[in-house]
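Contributing new records

If you add data, match the layout below exactly. Sequence lines come first and carry their own label; structure lines follow with theirs. Keep one chain per record. Anything else will be rejected by the validation script.
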Amino acid sequence: MARKSKQKMKLLYLVKIFLEETDDDHRLTTPQIIDRLDSYGIDAGRKSLYDDYEALRTFGLDIIKTQDVAMLPEDEDHFTALVDVVVSDQFYGWLMSFGNNLEIISPDWARERIAELAGEIKGMYG
């Protein structure tokens, strides 16, 4: 199959890669994913993959995409992290793992969702 005709299969190969090679403890970087796709004869660029990740997440796959993190020190014990992510239930679970050591500053909809999840947990345990 010619390399160009395989491009139509890119999303399917991405799903295959994610299902076979990733889980909560094993993540792949975008360069690693580009290499995996190349081994299948598929060309992929970083920016096009971000669109593909979003398409797969919208379809219902639990895809979390992170990029560079900017850490801004507040004082000796606190910092602000600026992070680009694809938001999912798994992402909120990760945030909840910080307990009361985390405050979401923005966006408002993320603050509201984490408060909603915390309220549901509180309701379960009284």
